[in-house]
Every structure is written in C-alpha cells, then in structure tokens.
Amino acid sequence: MKNVQSVPYNEPVDLRAFDIFKGVTDEQLEVVYQSMNCTIHKRGNTVYHEGSRINGTFLVIEGILKVFKTGFDGKEQIIRFAKPGELIGFRSVISDELACSTSKVIQDTVLCYLPGETLANLLKENPTFSMTLMKLTCKELGESNKFLTDIAQKTVRERLAEVLLLLMDTFELDEDHTLQISLTREELANMVGTATESVIRLLSEFKSDKLIELNGRKIKLLNIPKLIKIGNVYV
Question: Which segments within 1-101 are labelled E, that is strand?
Fold first, then answer.
C-alpha cells in the first residue's frame, strides 16, 4: 500500500495499551509487530480513497482522522472520527471489497499498517479479537442507522446540537469546557449533513442564545442541558 505524504515512525509502539489487542497472545502479538509498518501523517493527508483497493488495515496510534463518503456533487459526509486505538479500513479487507469511504488526517497522526493476511490470521485464530472487531462493526452500523434516522426526522438545528454533544462524548471537554477537537465550519456541516452557510448561521444563533462560545475553530459548551434538550438526545 502506498503511503501518501508520510514518513517512517521508528518509536516503539505498545500494542497492549490498546483494548483491541488485550486478548491477543504474546506469540500472535509478535507476528503483528513483525508485519506492521508505522508512519507519520500530517493534517490534510489522505490515507486511502473511496473506491481504492485496501490490502490491509490501519491502527491509529496518535492523532485523529475523519472517515467520510463523497456524494455525487463532491460534498463530503463524515461518517465518524478515528482516534488512538481504533482500526480503519478493516471492513473492506474482511469483505474483499474496494474501500467504501475515504480517510483523511485532521490532526497529525501516527498509523501502523497491518497487512490483510495478518488481520485474517488474527480473526481465524483468536475468538476474543474476532468478537471485539465484530462489536466495533456493529457499533459503526448502529451509528450509520442513527444518522439516517436523524437526517429524515430532525431539523438542522437539532442535528447541530446533537453533533456538538457527540463531539463532547467522543473527544471530551478540557477544563474550560471547550471541545478538544478543532474542526472547520465545513467539516461541522459535513457531520450535520447541511450547507456550511447553515452551520455558520446556527452557530451564531447558539452563541447569541449563550449555548456556546466561539474562539476561531474552538467551541466552548456553555449550556449542555439546553443542548441536550434542543438535540432531543436521550442520556
């Protein structure tokens, strides 16, 4: 697999630190270490494109990536974000299909590439690993189904409130109640499923209503209970 604008990462990686490898034996883990290749990717780099052939999966060691699909008009629809300890691209490897999404770096990232054969052997030989990956697949499917329901039944205002809460749950808040992820207005719009102009207008409304505070790309959540109510989110 060709690495796009990446450089080798030669620091030691502790795979035991990631939940997905907790049930893997020492012998199996050694095979993973011997076969994987780790690289550093800068913000804006594309790891793989929708429709390309992926011959292996990527483990996120550091940083954040966005996984998205591209519509006929070229507009992105962000499916999810990948954080340290998560795998990307594994579904296409398992199903032996072309990549169904694109993965792009939004925060400088360290990735370890695992060949498809290594992944397949782990799935065959380790039931715990297989179950963990199955749960991850089911989680992603559930999130996709929820998004389809939200698009059909919720207003853009409701969806934006829900997205802000999702980002809070995914990346947490710092001690100042600011989201620990920096997204462009376009990226927010691609999560909500609307035009960038609509998100800009709604963010201004949320600010006027003292629900949030804006500082460039940084968003501080001022009234989480009200956002929960607006987003019709069950907690």
Answer: 6-8, 37-41, 46-48, 56-70, 76-82, 87-88
Answer yes or no: are the C-beta atoms of 128 and 60 closer than 8 Å. no
Amino acid letter for position 125 = E
pLDDT in tens, 46-78: 999 999 999 999 999 999 999 999 987 888 989
Predicted TM-score of the model (pTM) = 0.89
Which residue type occupies 109?
T
DSSP type of residue 137:
H
Output the CA torsion sign for 57, 63, 64, 65.
negative
Domains defined along the chain, listed by start: 6-143 (2.60.120.10), 154-230 (1.10.10.10)
Alpha carbon 55 to chain centroid distance? 20
According to DSSP H, which parts of the chain are helical?
26-35, 90-95, 116-125, 127-153, 156-171, 185-192, 196-208, 224-230
Average pLDDT over residues 159-174: 94
Instruction: Give the integer Cα–Cα distance in Å for 177 and 179.
Output: 7
Task: Decide: 143 and 81 in contact? Cβ < 8 Å.
Answer: no
